[in-house]
Records
---
Amino acid sequence: MKNIAVFASGNGTNAERIIKYFEKSSIVQVNIVLTNNSNAGVIKRAQSLFVDAHVFNRNDFYNSDKILDILKQKNIDLIVLAGFLWLVPESLIEKYQNRIINIHPALLPDYGGKGMYGQRVHEAVIEAGEPKSGITIHYVNKIYDNGQIIFQAKVNIEKNDTPQSLAEKIHLLEYKHFPEVIESILF
Ligand code: GAR
């Protein structure tokens, strides 16, 4: 059995899709959802699908072994960041070399980096008058949105698109591709 831990900071619609995609699998499962935000929608989404949700704080993440201990205890093979906004500490990256991936809602290397998340990304893309945007799934290294790219998919931006409508298009791309890319990395 391959075990996945999903880290998310917010609503968690991607986390939900990933959990559902592997729900009936006998070889892959999402064991745990971890979040830095005790109000995150992802907590209820996980629990309603019978996946444990664990809330942690800055100290747990950056100055203790608490998260590492949980990941070890659950025999986690792959860490998936799905709308997770904190920089992953180097100690965790070293222990999970090439086993931490992130999804970014734009075509990296453009529109990435610290502070570029969610709606802010879509606002910047629309503001710049880009003809296309998309999603990037990449390995995580110690710099925000900088690790090796695994997969990208594009979407056209129409004249009447807004940051909100672009966010919806991007979410649909994410739901379609993220679980399959995760599966392909595991095997
Ligand atoms: C997703 O669009 C994801 O790509 C983005 O946050 C959203 C989370 O939505 N991640 C980033 O911006 C990371 N820099 P969700 O909580 O509904 O899955």
---
Amino acid sequence: MSNRNSNNKVLLIYTGGTIGMVQDENGALQPFAMERIYDALPLLHRTNYHIDSCQLDKIIDSSNMTPEFWVDIATIIERNYDNYDGFVVLHGTDTMAYTASALSFMFKNLTKPIVLTGSQLPLGMLRSDGRENIICALEIASAQHVLIPEVTIFFESHLYRGNRSTKVSAENFDAFSSFNYPSLAKAGIKISYRRNLFLPLPNGKLRVRKKFDPRIAVLKLFPGITPAVVNSIVSIPDLQGLIIETFGSGNAPTEPWFINELQHALEKGIIILNVTQCKAGAVQMRQYQASCDMDRIGVIGGHDITIEAAVTKMMYLLGNFPSDKEKVRDRLAKCLRGEISLEINDELDDF
Ligand code: ASP
């Protein structure tokens, strides 16, 4: 490969997912151990950058992903941070966008690439998309002529900002999309980087925060939603945060019972974030009357955040600032790691 430097070192971290799966006797896909990745892809031994590999203690189908696994992945990267030029995380596609978002919030002042990738077909299969995905992800993570100081997802020729990505297909090879931010690079004959889209290289010291508070809920609105459904969610004991997936540019029923339920939840200290169900575009509170009441009572507008980034950002902020709800509210409305289309709040050092 061109532009390689034999001194460049990448750590390949296997967490599970289709990319490393085999079929059991009933034909169901199950994860297998890391050494099999080298069997399936002997080319990995021939790259002229150095690859070390490791795997989580427990490799999983990413449907079993939890904040504890995010912490495990972050801990491996943190412990090895000074010894490698970049990191590639092999991950199941189902929740890859959540993990990429979670890692993006955990790593403040990141100066090295963390690239997540996976595949739709197991690496051992002839038509697997995993080979190209892994090789491109490794090339990007080890590149010497370009440095992407971000958590990203590489999938089917595109490199996306992790906290802008969403899984959009359960069958196509181009399984991911980033509707509200362009891709950072495109792999053709060569990999073309769009440097003007990267996050700026930070000056501060790397800081890794590993706390998450999972006591949140997501309420997806639909026409005909009943008071019983909304009430049962806002009555969850100990609920700290609620994301409402609203219509269009952040609209919801204007019925008094609905606003009263939300107001009651806010009075109990539950933080509420308004995220649109639309894949592209942003919440604009007060654009329609159907969001004015929510704005008035203190529901926070999520701008153009993905649901994956909203869930992980809320868990992250609640976990790290448990006694400062005002700070959580304030930071939810701000851009921390390029996850929403507002200027990044770099001067705020405490998140
Ligand atoms: N269920 C798998 C997972 O997310 C699917 C995949 O890897 O594509 O772990």
---
Amino acid sequence: AYEESARVQWVNATYINHDTDWLAARNAASLTRLTVELANEAARYDDVDVAEDVRRKLNFMKLIITVPAPRTPGAADELAEISTRLGSTYSTRRIDLSGGAFSPAELAAALKRVRDPAGNNPDTDLSPSVRQNETEILMRQLRNPAHLEEVWTKWNDYAAGMKNDYARMVEIANEGARELGYADVGELWRSGYDMPPQDFAAETDRLWAQVKPLYDQLHCHVRAELNEKYGDDAVPLDQPIRADLLGNMWAQSWGALGDVMTVGEGGGGVDVGALLVAGGYDPLKMVKTGESFFSSLGFEKLPATFWTRSQITKPLDREVVCHASAWSLDFRDDLRIKMCTTVSDEDFTTVHHELGHNYYQRAYNKQPLLFQNGANDGFHEAIGDMVALSITPEYLVQIGLLDAAPPASQDLGLLMNQALDKIAFLPFGLLVDKFRWQVFSGEITPDRYNDGWWALRTQYQGIRPPAPRPAGGFDAGSKYHVPGNVPYTRYFLARILQFSFYGSKEVGEKFNAMMEMGASRPWPDALEAFTGSRQMDGSAIVEYFAPLMEWLEKENAGRQCGW
Ligand code: X8Z
Ligand code: ZN
């Protein structure tokens, strides 16, 4: 049933239309009915004494369902229809950028850069109707605050159309979670970490407290630099930062600001995107390069079917889900990625990220189906990222992209680039699920979705919208994982974990042993097998960035930090 479902969902995600939505919804409904039935069976043994591995399997029979439906007739169908509609709406809706802040010539120039980056197609379609993946690229590239505000506002506004579906989905899924013995869906999500769910929430807060000082320093410095670039009106020095000025639709990673943030005389680090373009890389070559990196760590090559069945670039003739993902369709060797890869720094990292999922999936494919998973979901997200941390200038020299590694005087610039990506992400990685936990628990009701969302965005990220947001909106829905129902704390954990992994990656065999374990043991066992420690710990990331922290503290001395 899982394999059939994976194939149906794959077809839908790579060819969205009325019929594949219909098929996907129908398939999802029947899979939900089946898994809910099994999960309820498993729940009957909640208080029975059983062997440890049987207990793990019984648990996973419940936890494997991200959004459960209750057994009420029709509930699974309604839930599946709503979820499919949310997913497809997110990926296929467009926003119209004409008639606003852009002059026709400015708009044409911006779209040309997005749709014809190499600048060699005179017939480039310059229609002002912009799809989801293009809005992301625009947010990275534009530097005019009025233009940024326009794209940002239209993309956030459009998510309001998904609000009613989302609210109804929450109701149904909560009923399903309660049937299985959880207070709500949030508690179900927090239960997958080999500790009581309330301890897990506290654990994430503990990790955040470890890294927050670093974020605060970065925030302070970035705000000061943006103030220099955009002035006091757009970036007042005592306010949260305007969310649309950070080079990313959700202000979740700020790597695109590399050009704005200069460090020392060396200037910024290495512009990998520019090197890829100059080196004549195409998306396929980016993925091949990723594969050879994993080969150099001792992993077997990807199967031939990976290359014939993956979606590496966006097909021109149909709607697809562009948000990147990695799949194992048969729980053996039918591994694939699905991306709309562009030749850019960001996508080069994402390629490694997705391949990490595939290699992990293959490493644990001999485990029983219920153990075919990451030690926890943060591990799954951390594997590829850890590998991508090794895309150093030295490596770029090795593969011929760079002539010579930059002098040590540029180390801080490189570290800054990493921080703009990795450190900037942390509060966002934490708050997406803080928001959903509150939505599922009923603390944030649909009429307060935007209030609740922006309270968290300001509290944790120190950002604010460019203009007040409509109270009835659903800005959280602008982020793929919300309508897509993908839990998000995993990415926060992955940022913390990848630096612990990175510190011990010389031990290639141990790395593989950890991956082969899958979810067969509690995650502290897996972590210990690889790194020797049984605790997730923010000290590795803090240590990695220590030289930058020192520099930031000096730079920020005398500045007013905070918001
Ligand atoms: O969703 C992803 C991956 C797919 S598992 C591309 N990421 C998060 C995001 O894009 O928001 C990776 C980084 C965080
Ligand atoms: Zn991922």
